[in-house]
Amino acid sequence: MAVPVQIKGVTKAFRRAVAVAGVDVTAGQGVTGLLGPNGAGKTTLLRMMATVLAPDSGRLRLLGHDPATASGRLAIRRHLGYLPQEPGFHRGMTVFDFIDYVAILKELTDRRVRHDEVRRVVELVGLAPVSGKRIGAVSGGMRRRVGLAQALLGDPEVVILDEPTAGLDPEVRLRFRELVSQIGEDRTVILSTHQTEDVAAVCQQVVVLHQGRSLFAGTPAALIEQAAGRVWLDVTRGVGAQLAWRNGAGQVRNVGDAPAGAQLTAPTLEDAYLLLVGDTEVRVA
Amino acid sequence: MTTIVSTRSPAGAPVGPLAEREAWRIVRHPIYLAMLVYFILLGGVQVAGGGLSGRETVREVLLVLGLLWFGPATFFAANLVASSARRSHAESQLAAAPTTAYARTLAACLGVLGPTAAAAAFAAIVWVVEHAGGSLDHAQGLGELAVIPLCTLGGGLLGVAVAEWMPWRGAPLIVLFALLAWVVAVMDRGELQWTAPWTMSRAYYKDALLSAGSPGWHAAYLLGLALLAGVAAVLRHPSHRRPVLAFGAMVLIATLVAGWVQVQ
Prior knowledge:
The structure holds two protein chains of two kinds.
Chain A: E1 5-14, E2 17-27, E3 30-35, H1 42-49, E4 57-62, H2 70-77, E5 80-83, H3 95-105, H4 111-124, H5 140-152, E6 158-162, H6 170-183, E7 188-193, H7 196-202, E8 205-210, E9 213-218, H8 220-225, E10 231-234, E11 241-246, E12 252-256, E13 263-264, H9 269-277, H10 279-284
Parallel strand pairs in A: 3-7, 3-8, 5-6, 6-7
Antiparallel strand pairs in A: 1-2, 1-4, 8-9, 10-12, 10-13, 11-12
Helix pairs in contact in A: 3-4, 4-5
Chain B: H1 15-27, H2 30-47, H3 54-82, H4 84-87, H5 91-95, H6 101-111, H7 113-131, H8 142-145, H9 147-165, H10 171-187, H11 202-205, H12 215-234, H13 241-262
């Protein structure tokens, strides 16, 4: 069986601005996180994966199909769930009606089967109590769930989620995390985020993008390993620190090139990410 | 601005259910209600103090609604439904579904058959009011009453075409004003009166403006205009362009023939 997501040397530019500059990504079953600051090219890459944007060059295969051909796009779309970064909704429709509408677009034409499927995803994302409400009347977190519910219609083999937790309160974020983890049990989930905690919590693979290029691809543990020996605690900001902040215990956590004899501490995914991307871009993000 | 990938694949299975859904969305659009209130008031003003009998009063109000409400309201409702994905920024989300943009436009066009069926039922009511228990003065035939559903069909398909080709705010209003300007411009010009899309009601316009020839052929002419609007709507997408163009060419010829024959 083909690897669900295979991307090699994909590029995309908008006029002179290069959004994606030769990225390679391979993703199998489980959750793969795309990590990077704003403007790193995550959304553009995901839109290409979701077949709504054509790459300028490179090779892209989803579930063994080539999205450059009409038949390939159709085959991919039949097994794809996609939650864009800023999903739009017909606000006058009820939650149920909107998901039902998308279900028709996903070729669920038998009314009874379709309604059963809509009820299933509505239950799955915890929207049952508000399924009869107009989308315009529910909270932003609920709307995100509507977006996730429509992405899960038809039990797609590949689910692409573009910053699904952006702007959500901590509780809702944790619920999302649990849900994404469940979905990734038997499917391929590509999760774009700039929240390192989300990646550390649910991703088996991580790809770090920066300025349209892939800086790292591997497991979160391997990424953390890259930061070993580069995080230390001190009473003040260290000389070689790229970033430093005082933690809850009153110590200064330094990330950078540790001086000899420094009190090293175990790095986190966030430390590794900071070191990889560089503090300037992280501040911008 | 980024371009969403369009697909040339076949319309596919969901067109029927989607058309049914779009029909519901169109007929349930609140714009009907808003415009209904206005035209009921207009009809009321028109009949007030006119010395009409009960049936004539009912006929007058129904005609105002049939001729002035169904078409424009369907035009706006279909336009708003067909453009809703764009206006609500849902395009890229929906573009990742297997149903193509072509199929969605086709479904919106077929969805216009919903209000068209309602307009046909309305025209039947007008016919009953005019003919049951003896015909009223200026009672209309089927060719004249066909204007009601045909203008509804044409209005709806034009609304979809405007949503596809003029995706900016205010475009439907501009098109409607252009349409009204066309009607007004030809109203007093006997030789061109037949070109206007709703000038055939003898009961509404009495005898003052009738030189448009055969009502039946005028209905055929209106059907042709409506289909041309539908052709324009689906031509926005690359799928099936050749057969759609061929169909459009045939409809154009038939429309011109119907227009010419009606005034012979």
